[in-house]
Please model this.
Amino acid sequence: MPHDSVWWVSVALMGFLAVVFAFVFAGSGEREADYAPLRDRAYRLRTRLFWALVLTLFPAMIYNLVDLPYDAPRSASVAPEVIEVVGRQWSWSLSDTEVTVGRPVEFRVTSADVNHGFGIYDANMRLLGQTQAMPGYTNTLRHTFEAPGTYRALCMEYCGIVHHSMVAELTVAAAQGE
Ligand code: CUA
Model:
């Protein structure tokens, strides 16, 4: 039976551990002085390890923070179109619902009542970007649409019985001259 052998292996290992503990216990308290150099060496090692971590992690942290805020546009050559978005139970109001392909859009999202989730979906219901709509606070969501068509903004956070019908449409037009 495999269970039996597992049992006996466990018993043997536990017995071995008990013997090791007995040895350590029997030998403890005898040579306190022997531990001093060992302890000092461990402390020195610990100090060195601490500074090694500081010198490694601090520059790494700085390096990771230089790109903040991550959603800022890399090039400010094209001014984004700003769309004010207000969520309320149970609709979205957008200051503009027509944008142009290739032009960055900056959604400034807030709420008139409770928390909502502002999510932008393409025609295949693929999520392109989202941020939270919070009362008394404006969250910024930047997105550049790459294809013309009809997009939808859906509420992504349960906000009451008609949550599911918080849908707005956004039309993305082809760029001039195309
Ligand atoms: Cu608004 Cu769910």
User: Anything to note?
Assistant: The mean pLDDT is 89. The first strand starts at residue 81 and ends at 88. Residues 87, 116, 155, 157-159, 163, 166 surround dinuclear copper ion (CB under 6 Å).
